[in-house]
From TrEMBL:
It comes from Amphiprion percula. GO terms for cellular component: nucleus. PANTHER family: ASSOCIATE OF C-MYC AMY-1, C-MYC-BINDING PROTEIN. This is MYC binding protein. It comes from the Eukaryota. Gene3D superfamilies: 6.10.250.1060. Keywords: Coiled coil, Nucleus. CDD domains: ZIP_MycBP-like. Its main location: nucleus. Belongs to the AMY1 family. The keyword Cytoplasm does not apply.
Length: 103
């Protein structure tokens, strides 16, 4: 009987841990959303995975990565434009392969 009480105590501690960390509320809200769906999805597990991923907060560095991506995209666009300019300037000084073959 003492073993039974010890396992119940561990279960209760684990339940409190899940409750305190918000896991129970999150899972409950996802299951309620699935229950309230008028057209049930073919794959309930995919629905749960999708909604669990959407309901969690983003990683702390997500905003930093977003800013870095925008910065890198801007640099890329500038480099593409510079490359076009340099190619055009180079074409002024080098004859095209067609011109050299005609002579």
């Amino acid at each position: 009987m003492a073993h039974y009480r010890a396992s119940e105590s561990k279960r209760e501690q684990f339940r409190r841990y899940l409750e305190k960390s918000g896991v129970l509320d999150t899972i409950t809200s996802v299951l309620v959303a699935l229950y309230e769906e008028t057209e049930k999805p073919n794959n309930a597990l995919d629905f749960i995975k999708l909604h669990l991923g959407a309901s969690g907060s983003e990683p702390a560095d997500a905003e930093a990565l977003r800013l870095e991506l925008a910065d890198l995209q801007q640099k890329f666009n500038l480099l593409v434009e510079e490359n076009k300019e340099l190619k055009n300037r180079l074409m002024q000084y080098e004859p095209s392969p067609d011109d050299g073959a005609a002579e």
